[in-house]
Amino acid sequence: MTLLTAPVGELTEILSGFAFKSEQFNNSGEGLPLIRIRDVVEGASDTYYSGDYKSEFLIKNGDALIGMDGQFNLACWRGGPALLNQRVCKIKATDERLDQGYLLRFLPSALKEIEDRTPFVTVKHLSVKSLREIEISLPPLPEQRRIAAILDKTDALRAKRREAIAKLDQLLQSVFLEMFGGSTGTTTSVAELAPSAGAIRTGPFGSQLLHSELVDHGIAVLGIDNAVSNKFTWAKPRFITAEKYSQLSRYRVNPGDVLITIMGTCGRCAVVPDDVPAAINTKHLCCISLDRTRCEPEFLHSYFLMHPIARSYLESRAKGAIMAGLNMGIIKELPVALPSLEDQRRFVTIKKSLERQSAQAVSQENRSNELFAALQQHAFAGALRS
Prior knowledge:
This protein is α+β, with helices and mostly antiparallel strands and 386 residues long. It has helices at 8-11, 39-42, 100-117, 128-132, 141-181, 242-248, 297-306, 308-319, 328-333, 341-380, and strands at 5-7, 12-16, 25-26, 32-35, 48-49, 58-59, 64-67, 74-76, 82-84, 88-93, 135-137, 186-189, 200-202, 219-222, 239-240, 258-261, 269-271, 279-281, 285-288, 335-338. The protein is globular.
């Protein structure tokens, strides 16, 4: 049976946010919170607006909002009374043929399709026109509500799994801070933990490695995307020839090296796994080979991410630049409160155990996401049977 469809614009009211004057923004809590794109998913804002406003731009808990730039995220607001800023819109079902819950379950996949096919130079933009033109299937209202209820229940299970993963991360941080956050240990620096002068290095600069010299197969070239999630992951494939590698072998990345991003999303880090093939790093990464008789790589990785001394140091140095960034000198001088090797190894054992649990939970989450996507596809194609 062919399902009825209609454009979203015929069935909803879409309100675009207002361009509030930035000179009346504040972070002191004066006025009302201002919802910007970055606040849609978070459901809360730390930016306030103290000027006059029209009541139509006042948002309450439960209102459905869509970010119109970057990733086209949809979420229900939960941060209390707030004002709708430009490039965020509110959407509400107004036609008796459309259930609001069904609309909110339908839109994310439709928005993702628009996002995937939207060209961009710096940031992708969603227009209200594109939003209004989305075709939505319209089964009878009881069926819409049944579909929304099934997807709500399934999504709640996914949320619980995400919460479990987050709690494992929080537990690791708690363990680290309990073991090392209150004691200074031996005060040293990253530079003093390296076995030789060349053990801390960034990748080749300028004409040493041109983009045109990258090939489809060969020796791997690691960049920001391999460490940005704070664990080592294989991302966009980049390679150089064996001949080029012979010229750049001093930039080789070794198992157990600690990588830290120094441009873009700086301060992210990862430990290179034992099974890494021959590889070099780009100029956007600082690669640290450690004296393993003094410091465990997994300890330093957690130290960068969790210790108050490291976080304060890295954040202050990165913000001090015209464009947020770090450099090798800053990394070398980073102060390290170094505990005993025995205590480091005890922590690494706990860390490895929690990471195994987290990896298993993430694998289950990925499977749940695949099943949820399939369930959505069946639901909106009219194939979700009672």
